[in-house]
Design goal:
The complex is a heterodimer. Chain A is an alpha/beta fold. Chain A has helices spanning 40-46, 77-83, 98-108, 114-127, 131-134, 147-159, 177-190, 203-209, 227-232, 237-243; strands spanning 2-11, 14-24, 29-33, 57-65, 68-69, 84-87, 165-169, 195-199, 212-217, 220-226. Helices cover 36% and strands 26% of the residues of chain A. Chain B folds into 2 domains: 48-148, D-Maltodextrin-Binding Protein, domain 2 (3-Layer(aba) Sandwich), CATH 3.40.190.10; 173-397, MetI-like (MetI-like fold). Classes of the chains: A alpha/beta, B mainly alpha.
Chain lengths: 248, 398
């Protein structure tokens, strides 16, 4: 369960997110759509506090995950990020072996048990539908994989630390259609166990993978409803215009 | 017309390239040509010769033995493979106390004859005289066979006494060890500091601090080395002397400290650049998995930038080994094999700088200094090649 209360976000003097109130149910897929620069990626990055890394950024309002305010002084950001995994726009595996990529999250979180790590790596790669393709070359460099495989490796890497939420920032935008289809299939399976928040530019993709969709424009949440309803009968005119491709 | 200018410019650029390459080549050829002459040079100073009595069984002496004899450390021919007799050293000047100017004749025409008289009269004598007064009649006199300075004398000789008479000693071991010791300690100090500052600048410092600090550090690289030397001489050496309770502050350690300070800007600047080329996505990926900042630095950033860091270190070493002025000023300039870092040493570049002015052109000393230059050139060449290999490794890997 993710909830934002009156969230405002600023980059210096730029008001990037304007007073957003939103609730997201566990074990479902929520798509964030909207034109470029509307603040949807910024909004996504609030939930694992990746915006903390940006100098001059400022947040107002509250952000709750599973009944906890994640922006208190006592919040341990590294523990939060362990619970809220993230997959980025471009595949960004480490220049290490496939095995080491998946094991990285476990190791930095203090797990040393070799047998457990090996088991977890296999589970995660299986969950990311990559195991069969890489099981004989776990010690090869991650850079030897194709773009689509690399992205699934990044998903496996995020899954390895057992998060409950997975944030995806346009995870298929740099991939070919076949790899994209594989990722989408994966999201379908994963949303039964994880809460998935996915930013996408691709309307069809949002329609295909998500249960609920939120439409952002100029930093405001314009409309938020069930995906089916959003695409068949949007309430607002802006939404209608955007999803029919009249702008954006 | 347009085409003409084009060809003209192209030719000019080609020419400048060619000129540069030829210049580099000429310098190297010149260096080795001058240096290589050393091994054809006689051990005895040019224009001089060493004579003994013809009954003496000793045929030849090494530079080391000659020095020991004339220093009075070897007093008996037996030690040199001759008969058990005390050695009598005859220096050229003594001839003037035996004979008057008149007896030697006008323009010393009779001097060779008189030399012959003196030397042939004493079977235990060893005389060191100018070649031009060599007696024409060698009865009762024997000229010691002249040996060339050998490669082993040069490369593993333990003493560097280029002004010793009659036979100067050109053993580069003390200089080589001095250079390596000073550079090694300098690098030992500079690597952790330099890499640490690079990490701080690239990962921890905020943009304002970085914008201020980076140019300042790069400015350090532009300060003339003599200024560093002065600083070392006036500040660092006395501190070392006081803290260590030493007789003399100008030690290998002082040189190392000054060199470390001088190598820092290179190491920091290049290592920091290497770390900043790491894609932000790498950092984000690590942080998003729950790694702390420090974990991200040592598990992702440092391994990723390792080839850049290694190149920085190697270039830093290169700077340290070739540095002349600052080291000349603070290491105390004693050409002896160092036993500890708190003793005075002399490095190869410092030796060349200090002695070239007083070495007669074309002489053995002069050639020995050039040979030192060759040794230094080879060391830095190896370092450059290593740097090249390391920094190109990353490209191959990806």
């Amino acid at each position: 369960m993710i909830e934002t209360k009156n969230v405002n976000f600023y980059y210096g003097s730029f008001h990037a997110i304007k007073n957003v109130n939103m609730k997201m149910k566990s074990n479902s897929a929520i798509a964030l759509i909207g034109p470029s620069g509307c603040g949807k990626s910024t909004f996504l990055r609030l939930f694992n506090r990746m915006n903390d890394e940006i100098p001059g950024a400022k947040l107002e309002g509250e952000c709750w995950i599973n009944g906890k305010d994640i922006y208190t002084k006592h919040t341990q950001v590294d523990m939060l990020r362990k619970n809220v995994g993230m997959v980025f726009q471009k595949p960004n595996p480490f220049p290490k072996s496939i095995f080491e990529n998946v094991a990285y999250g476990l190791k930095v979180n203090g797990i040393k048990d070799r047998a457990f790590i090996t088991k977890k790596v296999e589970e995660s790669l299986t969950a990311a539908a990559l195991w069969d393709e890489v099981k004989y070359k776990l010690n090869k460099s991650a850079f030897e994989l194709s773009g689509g495989q690399q992205q699934r490796l990044c998903i496996a890497r995020a899954l390895a630390v057992s998060p409950s939420i997975l944030l995806m920032d346009e995870p298929a935008s740099a991939l070919d259609p076949i790899s994209t289809a594989k990722i989408e299939e994966l999201i379908h399976v994963l949303k039964q166990q994880y809460t998935i928040v996915i930013v996408t530019h691709n309307m069809q993709q949002a329609a295909r993978v998500s249960d609920k969709t939120a439409f952002f424009m100029y930093g405001e949440l314009v409309e938020y409803s069930d995906t089916k309803k959003m695409f068949l009968a949007p309430e607002k005119e802006e939404t209608q215009n955007y999803i029919t491709g009249r702008f954006g | 017309m347009k085409r003409l200018i084009d060809t003209l410019i192209e030719q000019l650029i080609k020419m400048s390239g060619a000129v540069t390459e030829i210049t580099v080549l000429l310098i190297i050829v010149f260096l080795f040509k001058e240096g290589a002459g050393l091994f054809n040079a006689s051990e005895v100073e040019k224009g001089y010769t060493v004579l003994v009595h013809s009954e003496n069984t000793v045929e030849r002496l090494s530079p080391k033995e000659l020095k020991e004899v004339f220093d009075g450390n070897i007093e008996n021919w037996e030690k040199l493979g001759g008969k058990d007799e005390a050695i009598r050293i005859f220096r050229f000047d003594e001839i003037f106390s035996i004979y008057t100017e008149d007896e030697l004749g006008k323009d010393y025409v009779l001097l060779p004859e008189k030399l012959e008289e003196v030397i042939s009269a004493d079977p235990t004598i060893i005389a060191y005289i100018p070649q031009k007064y060599l007696p024409t009649n060698l009865q009762g006199i024997k000229e010691l066979a002249k040996m060339n300075i050998s490669l082993t004398d040069f490369y593993i000789g333990k003493e560097w006494i280029p002004t010793a008479t009659p036979a100067p000693l050109f053993g580069i071991l003390p200089l080589l060890l001095g250079t390596l010791l000073v550079s090694f300690i300098a690098i030992l100090i500079a690597i952790p500091l330099g890499v640490g500052v690079a990490i701080y600048l690239a990962e921890i410092a905020n943009e304002r601090v970085r914008k201020l600090l980076k140019p300042a550090i790069e400015l350090l690289a532009g300060i003339p080395s003599v200024v560093y030397g002065f600083f070392g001489l006036v500040v660092i050496a006395p501190i070392i002397q006081k803290i260590g309770g030493l007789d003399l502050g100008e030690t290998a350690f002082a040189g190392s400290l000054v060199l470390a300070i001088m190598a820092l800007p290179t190491i920091i600047s290049i290592a920091e650049d290497a770390m900043r080329t790491i894609p932000k996505a790498m950092r984000d990926a690590s942080l998003a998995l729950g790694a702390t900042k420090w974990q991200t630095i040592y598990k992702v950033i440092i391994p990723f930038a390792s080839s850049g860091i290694a190149a920085a270190v190697v270039l830093g070493i290169g700077r340290a080994i070739g540095e002349t002025m600052a080291v000349l000023m603070v290491t105390g300039n004693a050409a002896v094999i160092p036993n500890s870092i708190f003793e005075s040493v002399r490095t190869i570049p410092a030796t060349i700088a200090a002695e070239l002015g007083e070495a007669p052109g074309g002489g053995a000393h002069y050639q020995a200094l050039f040979m030192l230059g060759c040794v230094l050139f080879i060391i830095t060449l190896i370092i450059s090649i290593v740097a090249e290999v390391i920094s190109s490794r990353k490209i191959i890997k990806e």
